[in-house]
Amino acid sequence: MAPVVPRTPYWRLAHLPPRLSWDDVRRAIDAIGKATPIDLRDRAVLLLLATTGIRNGELRALQLRDIDWRTGEVFVRRTKGKRDRVAPLIEETGAALADYILRARPNVDSQHLFLSFTPPVGPFKSASPVSRIVRKRLRHGGIELGRVAGAHLLRHSLATQLVGRRRPINEVADLLGHRSINTTALYVKVAASQLAEVALPFPGGAA
């Protein structure tokens, strides 16, 4: 019978993206202290992820020369779409980065921006350490985590926030580095207030 049983349809981008409210993200960032080098690094990591939406691999690939302090921009190389792009560097994130570089970053022969403090000191070799930083800091901020709780959760959260603020969808797509605007349109599904404006009336009137 198995060959004649119809398969359950699976529609691409039919799921809802996991995300956090900005209040939750803000609470987790504010819970990070500034007493140790690890605190300074982790605060800079979370702020950069939360305000630029860069991916885990893009963050690990960042080098010191990719931060343009004069223009307030981050040059993102080696993207998933094989294209370079520029992300804005807001004042708070820039200050956290400067604090980390000047007060906490190990003085080693490496141009990578973020370094592991675990010997041998150097750039992160895989996605796992960055994901652990995000999970640790979110939990410390009292955030209950689901299955997705790494850098991509902060990326989803930023995109959802921007769409909710009615930023143009093509602007959000450019920030995230999406090649197709259809990928970015996924976040419209969680913009309840905007969806309500285009919803058709329920047949027979409201219950």
Radius of gyration: 20 Å
Task: Going across the biggest sheet, name each strand in turn.
Answer: 1-2-3
Total of DSSP H or I helical runs spanning 4+ residues: 9
Structural class: mainly alpha
- How much helix, percentage-wise, in residues? 40-55%
Average of pLDDT: 80
What oligomeric state best describes the polypeptide chains here?
single chain
Residue ranges: pLDDT <50 for 5 or more in a row?
A: none
Measured between the Cα atoms of the first and last residue, the distance is 43 Å
By DSSP, the count of extended strands is 5
Q: Into which percentage range does the β-strand content fall?
A: 5-15%
Q: What spatial form do the alpha-carbon principal axes imply? A: globular
H and E order? HHHEEEHEEHHHHH
Biggest sheet details: 3 strands, antiparallel
Describe the structure.
The protein is 43% helix and 7% strand. The protein is built from 9 helices and 5 strands. It has helices spanning 22-30, 37-52, 56-61, 91-103, 128-140, 151-164, 169-176, 181-184, 192-198; strands spanning 67-68, 73-76, 85-88, 115-116, 122-123. Helix 1 (22-30) packs across helix 5 (128-140), helix 2 packs antiparallel against helix 4 and helix 2 (37-52) crosses helix 6 (151-164).
